[in-house]
Design a protein that fits this description.
Radius of gyration: 15 Å
Oligomer: single chain
Distance between the termini: 51 Å
Structural class: alpha+beta
CATH architecture: Roll
Number of helices: 3
Order of helices and strands: HHEHEEEEE
Number of domains: 1
Helix content: 10-25%
CATH class: Alpha Beta
Strand content: 35-45%
Shape: globular
CATH topology: Nuclear Transport Factor 2, Chain: A
């Protein structure tokens, strides 16, 4: 049986793989129903808003996603846990010739629900990466 920390690290891996594959249903299954995302420059986002922003119409391509999460710390207390990480993300919208790169830190709170760890709160401090012009 995996330790709580291994389960949480595994959830992060599944999240990244599912996001890369455009599998929004798997990503949504990793969240509590009352999840809240905190992102700079916008109001807190719910699970329904996340789903609406993430879904693409049938027959259309989803953005190409590449990400790297460097987990810095995982702390667990009972049925609550937090994780902070360094995250870098590159997104290429369908048909775009240039990618959008963002990097920074995240602070994520997990809650154990029915014996399974789920993402409950996420504070995303990513900002656009400025590349020198050549």
């Amino acid at each position: 049986m995996l330790s709580d920390e291994e389960q949480i690290r595994g959830l992060v891996d599944i999240w990244q793989s599912a996001t890369k594959a455009g599998d929004i249903d798997t990503v949504l299954s990793l969240m509590t129903d009352d999840v809240v995302f905190l992102v700079p420059g916008r109001q807190p986002m719910s699970k329904a808003e996340f789903a609406a922003l993430s879904r693409v119409p049938a027959g259309t391509s989803h953005s190409k996603f590449e990400g790297k999460s460097e987990i810095q710390e995982v702390q667990i207390s009972g049925d609550m846990a937090y994780l902070w990480s360094k995250l870098s993300v590159t997104v290429t919208p369908p048909g775009a010739s240039e990618s959008i790169e963002r990097a920074g830190h995240t602070l994520t709170i997990f809650r154990r629900v029915g014996g399974k760890w789920l993402l409950a709160r996420d504070a995303n401090l990513l900002s656009t990466v400025q590349r020198p012009r050549t």
